User: What shape does this take?
Amino acid sequence: MNKYEQELLQSCSRLDAVANCNGNVSSCAKEIICGNKEAIKKLYKYIEKAAELKDVHITTIAIAAKDSLMKYFGYQYLSNLYSNTEKDEDEITFEELMTQLNQLVGLNCVKSKVNNLIAFQKVQILRRENGLHSPKNTMHLAFTGNPGTGKTTVARIVGRIYRKLGLLSKGHFMEVSRTDLIAGYQGQTALKVKEVIEKAKGGVLFIDEAYSITENDHSDSYGRECLTELTKALEDYRDDLVVIVAGYTEPMHKFFESNPGLKSRFNTFIEFDDYNAEELFNIFRGICKKYNYTLSPSLEKKLMCIISNIETLKDKDFANGRLMRNIFEEMIMNHAKRVANIDNPTVSQLQELNEADIPIEFCHV
Assistant: This one.
């Protein structure tokens, strides 16, 4: 049980005791945690009745119960941001995956290159089925660009599409970083890399911030050992493994220069551009829609101005879509604190974000 559930149960138990509700308030809290939405209305009625008693002590505890309820649902929304609500791999179709790819906000150049890759692979499959020669091009990819530009999202979709085409036996997605590949003792890194490759075979191995493997290239023998083993695996398992390396553009150039055979193992290099202000706003609006939040007209105008200013003043570490997600998470927490002070909030009030919910650090941007 997490602390928000505990707080809700404890505050409702206290209200039960002081308002003589015979355990009904606590029962509502338990039902809410179990997913019974009807219990929310019941709990609100008990809180209202307690407040009508005109007892300062009871009213204070009733307000605390309502606050804990709003905190609980704020936590639920944040948790759901990372929950897996996607279809099972066997249920999702090739057409649905292509729709997922092509409906991503922005990324027009990226989507064009990936569509070309998929068209090439489809034709090669048809050629092999008809007894024609098919060139053995590597499927490994290199994604470069700033954080939050959709590299991981595209990598996941590519893996699933390749599986649907029959190019990968499993199509699973495995994400690793330097710490997953490099051991703490000399000679152990190669074994660690082999273990990772073995688990990734049949699917996609995504190495984010791949340049960190060789960032200390003059003194880091562990990094060189990792790269030697990885470069070998890129060739040995090219028929049933896709390795996608990603990271900032300039450091990735140095990464490919660190090993003579590394760059030749990758056939496709895709640059992910930063999102423009309109695309960032559409990303934010898409997150809101996914989690049943709406934007007031005044907030839409204000937020567009804020995003435009942020995009204009961005630096090399600009977080793109990741920044939009962070702003959303702050806003729904501010919304929860605001709505917690409203008696019997309507569905519209529970959904609508307004200017009052803008994080303070962005109010004057």
